[in-house]
Design goal:
By secondary structure, the protein is mainly beta. The protein contains one helix and six strands. β1 and β2 form a beta hairpin.
Length: 96
Amino acid sequence: MAATFDVRFEQTQDAARALRAYSLNLSAGGLCLRTRRSYDVGSRVRLQMSVSGEDFELEGIISWVRDDAEAIGVRFVDVREEDQLRLQRVVGSFKR
């Protein structure tokens, strides 16, 4: 699904600093984000996002970084089953 919605990161090393980013692509397994902040591949991140009225708090691992495009890929990890089902439902609703 390609859409623009707000995503907020909670840095594990500094939870008080929140970073806003914009999603380029979302699936039930992860997302691609535009962000000006640099990340290392393999870093763990916590993020909050709201999609179609559904709020999610998820953990992820940075799976790739494209500095030239100011984009990163985040793979969701340790997702609770109920959140996984909600993600699948939200992503599915965009494909109709």
